[in-house]
Design brief:
2 domains; six-stranded antiparallel sheet; Arc Repressor Mutant, subunit A; Beta-Lactamase; alpha+beta; 40% helix; single chain; disordered C terminus
Length: 271
């Protein structure tokens, strides 16, 4: 009798990382059942691995809260901070982020590309709890930093990221591949990228590149502004104008003012 092999058994390392991947900025503390559901592992397996991650040494990979839930432990943060490539970039960029934030009173974020996502290494903001926070991961089509970073990738990478089904976060989120490829081309041509109300209705963002000694784009600095502020100084993209007439624009916009305004906005961190 023919037998059909089942799915290959997941390795111990794969199961452990699946458990750690269950945590994110929206799920900072989780129960065993939560971890089981998000990692797609049996509760018994989760209990065994979590117990090891929690009980090896104090403050190891996972910590247990007073209400019996679990969260990422201090030791994992220590290990993550040792990543030499990104820690050096973060330390170099931080004074420029602080300077820029003090000049424009807006959220300033440092972003890098990680495979098909954008990851934020640093956030400077007057308001606590700003999102995305440090370590947050977002799809590139909803943020100016994502458009900017992926504008400088290969055509194959762009196709693999932007051709599939993309999540729509707001009525203004661009998900059509043709429009996204047009936005990438525009970002590459003009040297900065803009995302209007693509992640949330209230905010829009603008991003400029950080280049290495060879001129390659290695990171982006993003400024998040109230949408009405950004639309006062530069036109909304065609897709935003098509999808609604109730745009929160206040005051008159000077034709052609977008470029000089953005040059001034990002000048202090283009070193």
């Amino acid at each position: 009798m023919l037998t059909h092999p089942g799915p290959p058994e997941r390795s111990a390392v794969d199961r452990m990382f699946s458990i750690l991947d269950a945590f994110d900025h929206r799920n900072l503390t989780l129960t065993l059942s939560d971890i089981s559901r998000r990692s797609r592992l049996p509760v018994a397996t989760v209990h065994r691995i979590v117990n090891k991650l929690h009980s090896q040494v104090p403050s190891w990979a996972l910590e247990r809260t007073e209400d019996g839930k679990y969260r990422i432990g201090l030791r994992l943060w220590e290990i993550g901070s040792l990543a030499p490539r990104w820690s050096a970039l973060r330390a170099t960029a931080l004074p420029h982020l602080v300077k820029l934030q003090s000049q424009i009173a807006a959220s300033v974020l440092l972003a890098v590309r990680d495979r098909t996502d954008v990851v934020y290494l640093e956030v400077v903001c007057e308001s606590p709890g700003v999102r995305p926070g440090v370590g947050s991961r977002l799809p590139p089509h909803v943020t100016a930093s994502g458009l900017l970073l992926f504008a400088h990738t290969s055509a194959e990478t762009q196709e693999s990221v932007f051709s599939g089904p993309l999540r729509r976060y707001t009525d203004f989120t661009v998900t059509e591949p043709a429009e996204l490829h047009g936005a990438l081309e525009q970002a590459r041509r003009q040297g900065y990228a803009v995302a209007h109300r693509s992640l949330c209705d209230r905010h829009s963002s603008v991003a400029a590149p950080i280049r290495d000694a060879h001129g390659l784009v290695i990171a982006a600095i993003k400024v998040t502004l109230d949408s009405s502020v950004l639309w006062r100084v530069m036109p909304a993209p065609p897709v935003a104008r098509r999808r609604g007439s109730s745009l929160p624009v206040r005051g008159r916009r000077t034709p052609g003012a977008g470029g000089p305004y953005l040059t001034c906005l990002v000048s202090c961190f283009l070193w």
